[in-house]
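## tool: complex_structure
## caller: assistant
## args:
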Amino acid sequence: MPRISDAAILGYGCYVPRYRIKGYEMAKLWGKSTSELPVKEKAVAGFDEDTVTMSIEAARHAINRAGVDPSKISAVHVGTESKPYAVKPSGTIVAEVLGLSRKTTSADFEFACKAGTEAVQMVTALVEAGRIEYGLAIGADTAQGRPGDALEFTAASGAAAFVIGKNSRDCIAKFEYATSYVSDTPDFWRRSYERYPMHGSRFTGEPAYFHHTISAVSTIMGENGFSVNDIDYFVFHQPNVKFPLAVAKVLSIPLEKVKPAIVADQIGNTYAACSMIGLVKVLDRAEPGQRILFTSYGSGAGSDSFLLVTCEGLERRRNLAPTFDEMVSRRKEIDYSTYLKFREKIRV
Amino acid sequence: MSKPASYWRLRPFVYRLEGSRCVKCGHFHPLVRKVCRRCGSKNLERDRLPATGILRHFTVVSQAQQGMEKNTPFIVAWVEMDDGSKVVAQMTDCEPEDLKPAMKVETVVRKIKVDGESRLIFYGIKFRPSA
Amino acid sequence: MRVYVGGVGLTKVDEHWERTLTELMAEAGLSALESAGLQSVDAVVVSNVFAESLQEQVNLGAYFAEVLGLRGVSCLRVEAGGASGLAAVYSAASSIVSGLNKAVLVVGAEKMSDATAEEAVALSSMEEPAEYIASLGVSQLAEAALIYKEYLIRYGLEQEDVAYFPVLGHEHAQTAPHAQYQFKISVDTVMNSPYVAEPLRRFDTTSPADGAAAVLLLSEELARKLDSPKAVLKGFGMASDYLSPFDREDPVEMRSINFAAQRALEMAGLSRGSIDFVEVHDSYSFMAPLSLEAMGFAEKGYACHDARKGRWSLSGETPLNTFGGLKGRGNPVGASNIYSLAEAYLQVTGNAEKNQVDGAKAGLIQAVAGLGSYAAAVIIEEVG
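## result:
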């Protein structure tokens, strides 16, 4: 049974870059309909930002909430599909900047948009096994959509990080259970040396996102004998706003249990960070003793699903770092040409 | 700085603002020093600058520079750190019109430049307005 | 023991696309030897800053000897940033004072046209501590802009006040045959030029230049034997400071410049009032007034006011940068100070032609590395 007996979120943090581009900007450029945009606007990393710098920011917030000595953190795992180096770990740079332990396990995970929750799987397991005292699980991406492609409307930048350690009364949320559901489903991919990903258009929906998300959620609820009533918040991956709401409809989940985790309308799809930022937003407003079902989705394809119960430490620690709403409030709108410059889409 | 090691050995300062502080007079030096340049004492200890300070002046640099050709214009700030040390670094996450002398700023680690030869990414401290 | 200047050689400051660094060095060096009627020297000293970066050439001392046809002489190359030229003169003069040499040919040479504008910014930043200035993406240009801003605010000055110095440089350069920019500009020209790092504008800075200048330094004994016009180097002052101005107590206080000038004047036994003209290092416009103030030729914050009153003009009380300075004559970095010294030699020997300062007997040449990390001052006087 994939029950988790002794691993908890001690600190959480997210990072959203301050730049936004409106879906309208892209729609008018490419002559697409401006009435049915998948997200209102998306977050864009600045010229000097990448997955490493955003991971550092999110991790700093998580460490501040956890209140742990950075030198005692001995795992840094970064899930991303936009690592700055093809070969050279992002996590070691994060560890060096934050002054983490040198006796650290570190790797970058790749599983499209569920790479971040793979890092959570890894770090919870290390903690539970007693191999480490504290670890950092990070999801971060500066997602790239080919100019003019449908993905361009949503592919966004952001990061989320969790400091994970053993359970304590003063922790933020205990992990209860984890499950995964994967299959070989080529809905979205990027070959080596390619700049932009390819995707199967509508194939990314029903057989991909929906099948895996719903299978993982049904599995974890079934194995625990839970019904929708036992869960206070549902967090889903959000390639757009429509998809997670459609999952809620299929599973008869009341919208008020899903909407608190919706972040894509404000920042777009931040890929490996997406569902993790959704969890951050829920932790910003949940009360101790509430149960959260947190499910990622990554193309290729699969979902990780976790059950968490919030604890006493949540309310005290919440104010030790910026909330999602505070992060999103630092907002600077940019036009398409600035977007091209920031994301280095101008070939010179 | 095209050699990886020449950038790598600077990590303590460029990532974390670490250096040597004179035990006698309190003066801070980036990286490792044997002698205090201010008072001549040889009693120095490893220390780290505070992560916050006050903006003294800033300039908008429009002249492109090697290694940062696509980064113009960018802002460079003269910051008085909370311990009185002066640090000059780039400012990020702001427009010139957001900046006023004497405002609080904080450090953040960002990409500084991408090396032309080995394509290493150089990360380091920049400032941004405090939240 | 005194050191004499017995001849100089100047190439035109320009973008010498077709000429090599050694060709320029040879022209200046041979012309200096010829002007003194000398065939050979004991040693040659090369002042150069960027040859390894730009021409991938080191070992310039021996190369200079070779192109002069002076196989076998002693040689060396000196680098001290923007003050390399005077540092080379200091080194050459020391060898004469010590009795090691009787005649030393010092050449300053640089070919900046081999650098792109982007590279030039990075090159000048090499004068600053690379470990914690360049590594944070900060250029010397940006540092200079910050100091300029503080200078303006501290003394209640406007950019127009400082713009007078580039105007003056161009005014003096228009009649200097070896100058890069032989045309006048106005304060409006400066003020209408684009910012490079505000408040610094394009015309507050110098542009890439190639050039070589040579001075022939002689012992007193040898100088007496030669017929060429001679001047004496009466005072030397050199002083270092921290590389980055922001590590100093006050980045606007140019302590090294103050020390260097003070030491040179003391050695020469001269007061500021007996200096007839001054050559200062105006690689950035504001460095001219800042230098004049640091050296005590103007009250703090008043060099610009003095400029408006014409004090620094050729006919003024203390003519400044009599052939245009770095701004007007041009700034081939390692050669710039040698140009200044050679121009001062022309002044005190009465050979400055259209740029002649009336009654020029003693001049002070100042040079700065970086933003005051090293300063040098040399006082030259007519031989009475």
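## assistant note: The two ends of chain C are 16 Å apart (CA to CA). Chain C has a mean pLDDT of 97. Handing back to user.
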